DNA primase small subunit
Amino acid sequence: MRKLADLIFQRDRRREELSKIQKEISVLTQKTPSLILPFAHETPKDADQQKPSVSAPLTPQQKVSLFFELFKGRGDVFAERWESFYDPQKVGYSPICIKRSGECPRPYSFCKNCPDKHYKPFTPKDIEQHLLGNKTVVTYPLVNGRYCPFVVIDLDEDDCRNDAKAILECAEKFGIPAYLEISRSGKGIHIWIFFEGLVSAKDARLLCDSLITLTQNQIRMEVSLSSFDRIIPCQDVLDTNQLGNLVALPLQKKRRPNASVFVDKNLQKKASGFPTRE
């Protein structure tokens, strides 16, 4: 009898915890700026083109404007992917310094602690070069040390595809637009949630934590979510003189087939290539 009483107590406690998490999600979705459907959102005010519609194909300029608005993150700095000239297997990401376009005498290994660094601002031109495949752009999501325009759930290896489907199902249940992207390697999945404006990184991360917990306890209890790696941004708050973690942008040209692309809930590549409700 004691064992049965313990089980009933644990069940009731779990129900209380899930109820609390559901309320947290409700509060978060009301507290933060609207979760957005990217194609229904306006392009930047200085764009020459009018707001693109879901049905009409986007012009190249509209694609650049929309992509820049969605993935901008910090506007005062961005990074690019590099490969070693001597060893193509050696790759990394480095913030772009204006002085590097000149004749900086210092080696790249000195950049991190360089007292004279002057970062290049992030512009639509950089997005254009990214989409053309001339470089791979990486953005820093934390703005002013505590805000973000999007949040990403990073799933790697193992059973990431089934885990991603389960989290997406949970997000849809609570009316949260989420978008799946196959990672550059083709072995992982990024789940993107965009906001209409900057939101507290703490709230954005809590939203993802709640989705993950509810996925395991309500949507698919058989799912372990063993592929879960991290939530980006990784910090709630960051010192403003630090860059924080980074995230590589989707639609990279130099990638494996069917990788770095947005897919639907069946993991089929979206016809538009962009994060839309097709």
Notes: Confidence is low (pLDDT under 50) at residues 4-9, 39-55.
